[in-house]
Amino acid sequence: MQLALATYRLRFIHPFGTAHGLRDGTDAVFVRLMRAGNTGYGEATLPPYLPYDQVSVYFELNNYWNQVGACEKHTEGLPPEADRLSPPARAALQMALMDLRAKEMGRSVESVLTGCGEPVENALAMVTLGHSEVADIDRKLDDLPPTSVLKVKLGAANDAAVLRHLRQCKRRFFLDANQGYTTVDQAIAAVDALGAERVVGMEQPFAKDRWDLHMVLREQMDVPVYADESVQGMAELERAAEAFDGVNLKLMKCGGLDVARTMAERAQELGLRVMLGSMSESSLGCGAMLALRSHATLLDLDGPWLLANDPFVGLRMEAGRMALEGSSGIGVEVRPGIGLEFTHIGA
Fold first, then answer.
1. Residue 240 CA to chain centroid, in angstroms?
2. Residues contacting residue 302 through CB under 8 Å, at least 6 positions apart
3. Yes or no: domain 114-334 corresponds to CATH 3.30.530.20
4. CB–CB of 126/151 below 8 Å?
5. Closest CA to 340 of 312, 315, 307, 302
6. Domain 2-107+335-345: CATH class, spelled out
7. Which stretches of the chain are DSSP H helices?
8. How many CB atoms lie within 10 A of CB 198?
9. Fewest C-beta atoms under 10 Å: which of 61, 154, 171, 280?
10. Which residues contact 248 (CB under 8 A, 6 or more apart)?
11. Which has the closest alpha carbon to 314: 296, 332, 329, 300?
12. Helices (H), strands (E): how many in the chain?
């Protein structure tokens, strides 16, 4: 087995604003594994609010491979040594290995991971509107594919004006404040501005350690409250039902599709709704997470439609539903001529 790595800057079509700030793109590290004529790909996306960056993840993977090597340990899955990697680095390597193994079997990652023969289409797909000036909203919406649910980033000074403008939109809404609110009244006012009957959920309105505020909010409104930053791993998931109705699972937090599957199954056992999220990954990372759609209520995997230079193709939106073109592996391929330059690692 051979490993190669590539660094890349995913660029947004429009600058993307959240309560974390405004950015024009996201740094990423892509992984390529090759064995006996088959190739698997993985992705680590690294927004600036994570405690890891492109350089650290690249060298993590480089050092790991030089120490562990292309040995029999990677035949069926990642060896225990991989658990010492940061979550983004492990997620990228595990994704590439799953893509490779599924292609070797002539099956989709979804069927290998979940045992589902045919894709399950119950989850609602969303597209995201970042922080915006009111005058720019309609233009941005025109660039996004039609879905039944629009995810709206909140926590900006003009929230009230944005929500008033969105009343004319025919979609339902999912509201995400990214820890940008400090009072329960702020969150309730945002829901009331659109009408609770049109809001399918609200995500992480308060700081990740304010479980008390999330608990009060859930008691005071009927709209489901989802955890994001408050749930980083299994430990937080076990107590999530105290304050939340659902949880947003992301590969860059979980550390791999195998961990994400375990967390999704446990969340359902705890009575929590599951949203599959992303950190603006390309079609590769979002397509990989789509393999868990049978566990989900909501799909927040719209990164490819926000990007100007997606290096992969094969993920599409059809009548508000997400679909993959490929029938084996993750279901996507490298976009021809994109300039994704891989460097071979190891001997």
1. 19
2. 125, 126, 127, 128, 144, 151, 278, 286
3. no
4. yes
5. 312
6. alpha beta
7. 54-68, 87-105, 109-114, 134-142, 159-166, 184-194, 211-220, 234-239, 251-254, 257-269, 283-289, 303-306
8. 17
9. 171
10. 203, 204, 226, 227, 228, 231, 275, 276, 277, 300
11. 332
12. 12, 16
Length of the chain: 347
The token duo for 215 is 């608990």
- Report yes or no: 297 and 274 within 8 Å, Cβ to Cβ: yes
Return the structure tokens found at 172: 């339902």
Tokens linked to 229: 């930053």
Distance CA 121, CA 119 (A): 6
Q: What is the rounded distance in angstroms from the CA atom of residue 279 to the CA atom of residue 318?
A: 22
Which sequence spans correspond to the domains of the chain?
2-107+335-345, 114-334
Q: Hey, what are 182's tokens?
A: 């400090």
